[in-house]
Amino acid sequence: MSALDAPTIALVGAGSMGGALVRGWIEAVRKGGGLTLTVVEPNFDPELERELETVGAVLNPPEPGPVEVLVLAVKPQAFADAAQQARKFVGPQTCVLSIMAGVTMDALTRALGAERVVRAMPNLPSRIGRGVTAYAASPACSEQDRQLVEQLLEPLGAVEPLAAERLMDAVTAVSGSGPAYVFLLAEVLAVAAEQEGLDRDTAMRLASRTVAGAGALMLETGETPGALRKQVMSPGGTTEAALDILAAADGLAPLLRRAVAAAAKRSRDLGKG
Ligand SMILES: NC(=O)c1ccc[n+]([C@@H]2O[C@H](COP(=O)([O-])OP(=O)(O)OC[C@H]3O[C@@H](n4cnc5c(N)ncnc54)[C@H](OP(=O)(O)O)[C@@H]3O)[C@@H](O)[C@H]2O)c1
Fold first, then answer.
1. Contact of 145 with 115, CB cutoff 8 Å
2. Domain 176-272: which topology?
3. Is the pTM for the entire model greater than 0.85?
4. Which atom of ligand 1 is nearest to the CA of 19?
5. Which CATH class is domain 8-165?
6. Helical ranges in 76-195 per DSSP H
7. Could you report the per-residue pLDDT of 4-13, keeping only the tens digit for each?
8. Domain boundaries in the chain?
9. Is the CB of 10 under 6 A from ligand 1?
10. Which of 16, 52, 59, 168 to mutate to test the pocket of ligand 1 (most atoms within 8 A of CB)?
11. In 3D, which of 94, 78, 95, 99 has the Cα closest to residue 22?
12. Ligand 1 centroid vs 75 CA: distance in angstroms?
């Protein structure tokens, strides 16, 4: 992560996602980035707490004051409680960045009294810095706010700006829920491997490594999935026999289309609720 231009940042919730974020920011401080960190968390991971102390972070301040960026990383159901404390970090210049699933910009503005709000959706691999996070910023946000937010999200992996908040439902259905689809693929591939005679453990290792290796190859080469798929296939070969089924009109594409549409609809419905 590049050095940040001396902003004051408060993070509320240093669990799995918040912890991954703040570990990246600690690195930025060590590289000479002049950011000032305040973290509110009822149950610090002891190692993270020590690391924060070594870079002079303020932990659980009794009397919080306004900061430039307030980051919210508590579970959505804890937001109402956390907002009581979080509001004290908000002043006229504060930009709010939330990674809470399903909490709208409107709800953030109402609960915290901030106009400059950014809503971001990371995914599970973000915990190891290999995720993808899409974000949407309210119209009140400046270009500088967006740049700062992108830098702050970098420890989670790749960052994708969105043109509008309504696209968050599609993001939730694709990259937010997507890791579960891929884990299911590994699971069902392992079951199919067992049915072809492999023992359970070998089947699971082959399936997991295949999914992980294919993903890593796609990222490292930058080649499209379509181009890589063709590299595995030869005319009349084994892969083609399988893809005749998977890529058929009633194969994987319509199934995934229905699954993604159902997830996006659920996201829209939860948003209305
Ligand atoms: N994990 C994912 O894959 C994923 C993906 C997309 C979005 N997100 C979003 O990321 C957010 C964080 O998820 P997570 O998996 O990191 O959750 P988590 O591990 O439970 O972290 C939340 C942390 O916030 C703390 N907390 C609870 N109430 C608080 C309060 N009032 N003030 C300050 N801290 C408080 C929790 O402490 P206690 O443990 O003591 O309650 C916990 O350490 C969620 O809103 C989720 O929707 C997560």
1. no
2. ProC C-terminal domain-like fold (1.10.3730)
3. yes
4. 16
5. alpha beta
6. 79-86, 105-112, 143-153, 168-171, 178-195
7. 566 899 999 9
8. 8-165, 176-272
9. no
10. 16
11. 99
12. 4
